[in-house]
Design goal:
The complex is a heterodimer of chains A (83) and B (467). Chain A is mostly helical. Chain A contains three helices and two strands. Helix content of chain B is 42%, strand content 12%. Chain B contains 18 helices and eleven strands. In chain B, a hairpin with a 7-residue loop joins strand 10 (433-436) and strand 11 (444-447). Classes of the chains: A mainly alpha (83), B alpha/beta (467).
């Protein structure tokens, strides 16, 4: 897929400036001995409880007010991807 | 604590030298009339109602907390329930926050009064606060120059005394660089010290909430108020309150390091270089051992940061398709609606970063760019770990040169990316780094090992008395 489709941006093309940055990474020395465990993710020992928390009324009202499309009192979301 | 604005105003309120309503109204007026384009929206109704409550409390003889009644600003990427949160973008121009960010909620709980949602680069995408629908932020000292970015409006508001402190967001330098450009303090704490819940995500693995203020003491107070574990952000960790006493005793610092290659290169302005080296000499004269350290080349740091940040922002911003919120523009089909909505409503810089992110994440490219970027990041982190066995503090300039003229950065995105050379490395390392308005024209960065935020503030106190 091309970047305009991946990004959902009409006519988008890769930028020359950004490609220059990527070239630096491509050419960077790779330390092959490195097998670090990525520590930027969340540990699974300390996850929050998997419970549903009801939002306050005010929060719900604002979420509805932000919704772009409404029909017969319902909020319109996409049915399915069409193709 | 003479220089602390918070202590000073607190005393004035307690002594009834000024009413909170008058204080808030004065600052609101300054913000409203200011010509630096720092304001996206004023929170005047909320601010004045809160001020009236503080006045009533003082009037009835009750004690007030240190932050109670202190007016502050909020970068317009933080959720504050019921207020516009635009991220300085067309897409979210009319978007209202359904809830309040944890960091901001904690300041509200301490009684601080929000005045303003502050101008910034759209979604934090920029180093100059020119990528915004509200007009380029103008530097506090010279309005022909940029305010820095992405938290430009926040830094200018503090520098001009429109707010007592402001809350910026720092992903690759967005608090530290504008603080440097406007000669105020700006702190990026250790990643995870302050909850990111309710901060619009740019690059989640380096996004940090950061206070901007005019003194180390005010940074300390605001940092303490916002820190702590939050179940709504699983990357947060519990931390201890940093006391004023802890950071006033500066004896503990024995060794300071700096990256030789940051200073010995062609990109750094001659004056920044000589000023930095003069600072190093003053530190040596105080009996502190100074070590030159080896580090990755600036272009490697910048490329690694932008590769990862673009990948993360492409993913984070994919939700902005006009379905649940935002300025939806209808097209012939659903996919068409998505792409028109995004094309018309994102800034050029945001599009550049989203496209770049999708490039590196796409099949066939991810191995040689994205995964390699992750690996270089690990090497950078390992390098920091090694360094902090040798030194207590790493000192660095904030930027290679002085703030550019308004308009220049937009013409040359690559130059703008490269100007982040000194800030992005510490972000990738998730380290605590403070900009102090001393040492060079755009200040100095003080960095310590992870979770050693107190040591950073301690060294800042030492520098204040040394240079």
């Amino acid at each position: 897929m091309t970047v305009d489709i991946l990004s959902s941006i009409k006519g988008a093309k890769p930028s020359e400036s950004v490609n220059k940055l990527f070239d630096v990474i491509k050419n960077a020395n790779k330390n092959t001995a490195l097998n670090t465990v990525h520590t930027n993710a969340v540990t699974i020992d300390d996850l929050r409880e998997d419970v549903v928390i009801d939002s306050p009324q005010m929060e719900k009202q604002i979420i509805i007010a932000n919704f772009p499309k409404e029909k017969n009192g319902y909020l319109v979301v996409s049915k399915v991807i069409e193709e | 604590m003479m220089e602390s604005q918070i202590h000073k105003i607190h005393q004035q309120l307690v002594n009834k030298e000024i009413s909170c309503t008058k204080l808030v109204q004065e600052r609101l007026d300054l913000l409203k009339l200011n010509t630096h384009n720092t304001v996206n929206s004023l929170l005047d109704t909320l601010a004045l109602a809160s001020a009236a409550k503080v006045d009533a409390k003082i009037e009835s003889g009750q004690e007030i907390g240190l932050l109670e009644g202190i007016p502050f600003g909020i970068k317009d990427v933080y959720m504050v329930q019921g207020t516009y949160t635009t991220a300085s973008s067309d897409l979210l121009k009319k978007y209202k926050s359904p809830y309040t960010a944890t960091a901001i909620q904690k300041l509200f709980a301490a009684g601080a009064i929000p005045l303003v949602k502050e101008n910034c680069d759209s979604f934090g995408h920029g180093s100059s606060s020119e990528n915004t629908i509200f007009g380029a932020v103008k530097n506090a000292n010279n309005p022909n120059l940029v305010g820095g970015g992405s938290s430009g409006g926040s830094a200018v508001n503090v520098a001009k005394d429109y707010t007592v402190f402001s809350i910026g967001g720092d992903t690759g330098g967005s608090v530290r660089q504008p603080a440097g450009y406007n000669n105020v303090y700006g702190f990026k704490p250790t990643y995870g010290r302050i909850s990111r819940f309710g901060l619009m995500a740019y690059a989640s693995s380096t996004d940090c909430v950061g206070p901007i203020a005019k003194s180390i003491e005010d940074i300390r107070i605001v940092l303490n108020a916002m820190s702590g574990k939050d179940i709504k952000d699983q990357t947060t960790y519990p931390s201890e309150t940093i006391s004023a006493a802890t950071i006033s005793n500066t004896d503990a610092i024995k060794t300071v390091g700096y990256f030789k290659n940051f200073i010995e290169n062609d990109a750094i302005d001659a004056k920044v270089k000589s000023d930095f080296l003069a600072t190093i000499e003053k530190i040596k004269a105080k009996g502190i051992q100074v070590k030159e350290l080896d580090f990755f080349a600036s272009d490697t740091l910048v490329a690694t940061y932008y590769t990862l940040a673009m990948a993360e922002t492409a993913s984070n911003l994919s939700r902005l398709d006009g379905t649940n919120y935002g300025n939806r523009i209808e097209g012939a089909s659903l996919k068409d609606t998505y792409s028109i909505t995004r094309s018309e409503n994102f800034s050029e810089e945001t599009k550049r970063r989203v496209v770049g992110g999708n490039q590196v994440l796409s099949q066939g490219f991810s191995d040689e760019i994205y995964l390699k970027g992750l690996s270089v990041r690990d090497q950078i982190a390992a390098n920091f770990e090694k360094d902090f066995h040798q030194v207590d503090i790493i000192l660095s300039p904030v930027t290679p040169s002085s703030p550019p003229k308004i308009g220049d950065s937009l013409k040359d995105p690559l130059a703008m990316y490269l100007s982040d050379a000194y800030t992005v490395g510490f972000s990738l390392g998730q380290l605590p780094t403070l900009t102090v308005p001393q040492g060079t024209e755009t200040g100095l960065q003080i960095t310590a090992a992870k979770n050693n935020d107190a040591l950073v503030l301690k060294f800042a106190n030492f520098l204040k008395d040394t240079i």
